[in-house]
Automatic annotation (TrEMBL):
One of its GO terms (molecular function) is manganese ion transmembrane transporter activity. The chain crosses the membrane at residues 32-57, 152-173, 185-202, 214-236. This is VIT family protein. It holds the Pfam family VIT1. It comes from Candidatus Lucifugimonas marina.
Amino acid sequence: MHTPDRVRQRLEDGTPQSYLKDMVYGGIDGTITTFAVVSGVVGAELAAGIVVILGLANLIADGFSMAVSNFLGTKAEQQFLQKVRVEEELEVKLIPDGEREEIRQIYAAKGFEGELLEQVVDVITSNEQVWIDTMLLEEHGLLLDGPEPKRAAWWTFVAFLLAGIVPVVPFIVNLLVDGGIAAPFLWSSIATAATFFGIGIYKARVVGGNTIKAGIETVTVGGMAAVLAYGVGWLLRGVADGL
């Protein structure tokens, strides 16, 4: 992996994009919001059919909303990067000496000095593309390569649907199968906790870290949301009957 040819190839291919954040974000939010709806309805002691209706409605609508929001947010980051690039291009043309001084001070702060520092400045500023890219990275802290907006949105939506459907499945089975499942909310809770735990483990395996700790952390966050939703539903359980 570290022969000259392999290193050169990796650098030419550019930075591989990861959509882990989009998948984890979508999966966790999908599970939390759908299970919160289920918990609220059950806490309010409403009919099981309402669980399915509200759960599926939330699944589609909120999943689409999250995907669109992720698309627009990721696209906005790209547009901001382009805006700053245009500004730097203009400054390089209008005040090149000032921009050279910025490069000089940036690399002086990294420990370069004397003739070596001047050589670094000369090399970087001899290529306008490299010069501007360096300013974007070092001065503004911007990444030159980012996730593709459509893919980010797609992964968010898919993860939201796949994870978010889990809390509703026991109630769907009860509507479709005679006899159904006894205590569907219990099984929904177990399946949801397992989903949270699985998402945490997947995240930990990709980024490194304690898988058990990551799983428990995710379950805890989701459980808190569910408890809040169930509590609100329980407190308002008589409201629907009075409407």
